[in-house]
Amino acid sequence: RSTLFPYTTLFRSRKVAQPELLTQAWEKFHECFHTFNLGPRSRDFNSVHLCEAPGAFITSLNHALVSSHPETNWNWIGTTLNPHYEGNSLGFMINDDRFILGCLDNWEFGVDNTGDLMNINNLNKLKERCKGMGDIHLVTADGSIDCQGEPARQESIVSRLLESEIYTALSILSEGGNFVIKMFTMFESETVCMMYLLDLCFNKIEVFKPADRKSTRLNSSHARYL
Length: 226
What we know:
With 226 residues, this protein is α/β, with parallel strands linked by helices. It has helices spanning 5-17, 24-35, 56-68, 120-131, 154-172, 189-201, and strands at residues 44-50, 73-78, 138-141, 178-183, 202-208, 219-225. It has six helices and six strands. It has a six-stranded mixed sheet. Strand 1 (44-50), helix 3 (56-68) and strand 2 (73-78) form a beta-alpha-beta unit. Helix 2 (24-35) packs across helix 3 and helix 4 runs parallel beside helix 5 (154-172).
């Protein structure tokens, strides 16, 4: 029964809401959006989505804004490993460009066109582009690395990517904004240090497990910037 539950909810969501690019990530963010009131507080709303391919967080946010905040003037930027860059390993990126192709101008792949957020030059280029948007009200980070070869070391392997996501969010998020980051377990010293850093920078940290997440994976963390 627990194995069939995610597929049942996906089928129900597809039938009722008819959303674009429906995945478990879509439902996960939709739940976070309404649970933590991540919507706009004024007419203008700017968001940045890190490690976003294939784009489910963006399409989920679009659905939520159209449904609950139809008057919003929304601008967004997405980053991900560029699926059109031949130097990127298929084992590290999501090779799905269905959504990306329709909105290429909204995507930032950095100075080297790889989209690798762990390259400081790409990160700095994203920061410069964000300055032209005005206030950034929401940053999401849904990145991970394929750890099937070493599942016991998943937390340590992904930690460098999480550090890059957190540094980026702290660099671009405006006062009063929200940051949603996907994490897994929280046992290693690297993760503890990252949570401590977030606790220093935000006035509230919440660890939240969406209802349709797999039981072996732990959390999406939500933080509100001071």
